[in-house]
Amino acid sequence: MNRYAFVTTIPNLTGALQRGVAIITEHNGNINRIHFDRGIDPYTVFFEVTATAEKYEHIRRELADIGYLQTTLETFACLKIHVHLPHESGGLNDFLKMTTGAGAEITSITFDDAGIHPDWVTICMSVRESSPVEELLHALKSHYPIEVLEFDNTGQSLDDTVFYLRFAQKMRTLIDTPDDDFLLRFLGEINHTAQDLTARGENPKMVFQNVLGAGEYIALTCKDGFYADVQVLTLSEEVTLYAIQLPSGGNIYLFRTLDGIEMLDTGYGVYYPDVMQLFAAYGLPVTEELTRIIVSHGDADHCGAGGFFDVPALMHPATWEIIRTGNRAWGSRSAGMVLEEVYTTMIALYSRWNPPEEKNIHLIAMESDEKRSIFPVIGRITIGDLAFEILETPGGHQVGELVLYCPKEGYLFTADSFMNFASLTEERRRYNSYADFLVTSVNVDSDIARTERHALSGIAQEFTSETGRPSTIFGGHGAVSEYGDGILTVIGTIEHYTHAGGRELSEDKP
């Protein structure tokens, strides 16, 4: 017995839903999930059923025979018009004969001879494919006086009669796939997220708005829309650090040493061409001199461009499992949550997920009895003349997340466990809010995450107590900051980079 998901389009008629369910029942299919909400879309019903492969094929075939099974995502156009109809018996009927003959579906109609437009009928309609609607409009104009109020051949406006078709058309442009079968499956997964969050009290329309909002922001901040905030810091005699805040997602840290360049985290894959252009603007020959990538954890915004670099990629074994399974909550108590699984898939698609290739992955050996605070010290690395401990977090933000600590200088590269949230721009905060909404928390275990933050601040405070110097926090997001008296303060200068403007001193240093 296997579990199958599919999408149906069911007529808005009494008994229509029961007819589809009866076919599933006749072939011994057990319905694990069903979701239908007339307030979202009056026709689309999502199913997940358990059945044998043979029985499932019978179910699909019979649903297809009666026109219920949705296997393609049609394109359509929407038209809203004022039309002047003869004020006589049969005037509206004749008009509707023309629209029905053209395959148009009337989604709204309003007329009142005592209203403010007594001579006009206002009509909204949807027509499958955009060419027929243009033909229909031409035919209507030859018979009636018409004022076009709105004509949209992208399916992105007017009413919500075919909400899921409109949503899928927008998704297609964001994930760049012509594959209807894949898009339908993914639409079902997004619907499952909406169903789950609706049960938690959220507005389902807000779920879809956030799903699209995340993708639209990533798409808008590539190429001509790309920007980054950069801090260039001298860490030692041999190491210069380039701390790069991308438009969305995590930071990239480049260590330029006498022996070459090392990279901590890579950002989204979709930003790779833009990031390479930024590197060139800063005189960083990454293609020639990159020797190693260090991956702090398995989220797409931290390792999603690793596959573009043919160099060793050092990571925790759990991070490799997260990459391999495509589930950011792997190994945590949130591992089976629909929200986490769907969000991982969604961001991977939007961000053109391209993690390090398996042949380049170097896993950290896990045998260690040494600890710093609550964190096992699972390894040591040297970058230039700086020696770092590799600390394993307990898995609050994500299982397998790594922290790098330089005891001599108090440098803490804390990934997403501890950062200067106040330094995030409003745009970056808004982007981060999509994840907070869609998975309810960016941490796979919020209780453990709080413990991690407290312990990391304790390490920073201990360094200050011992040396009289502030510790420096290099968070997974936000600006590099000094930590003192419980406060994070941005250090150095921040340059704002765009492809058009190049490097400019930021006027909005947080």
Can you describe what's shown?
The chain is of the alpha+beta class. It folds into 4 domains: 2-65, ACT domain (Alpha-Beta Plaits, 2-Layer Sandwich); 76-152, 2-Layer Sandwich (Alpha-Beta Plaits); 163-220, no CATH class; 223-505, Ribonuclease Z/Hydroxyacylglutathione hydrolase-like (Metallo-beta-lactamase, Chain A). 34% of the residues lie in helices and 27% in strands. It contains 14 helices and 24 strands. The strands form 4 sheets. Strands 14-13-12-11-10-9-8-23-24 form a 9-stranded mixed beta sheet. The chain is elongated, with a radius of gyration of 28 Å.
Average pLDDT level = 92
| General form | elongated
Q: Main sheet: which strands, in order across?
A: 14-13-12-11-10-9-8-23-24
Proportion in β-strands: 25-35%
Classify the fold: give the CATH topology of the largest domain.
Metallo-beta-lactamase, Chain A
Instruction: Give the beta-strand count.
Output: 24
**pLDDT under 50 segments (min length 5)?**
155-159
CATH homologous superfamily descriptor of the largest domain: Ribonuclease Z/Hydroxyacylglutathione hydrolase-like
Number of domains: 4
Task: Output the number of helix runs.
Answer: 14
Helix content: 25-40%
Distance between the termini: 57 Å
Q: Report the radius of gyration as a whole number of Å.
A: 28 Å
- The assigned CATH architecture of the largest domain is 4-Layer Sandwich
Q: Regarding CATH, which class of the largest domain? A: Alpha Beta
Largest sheet: 9 strands, mixed
The SS-based structural class is alpha+beta
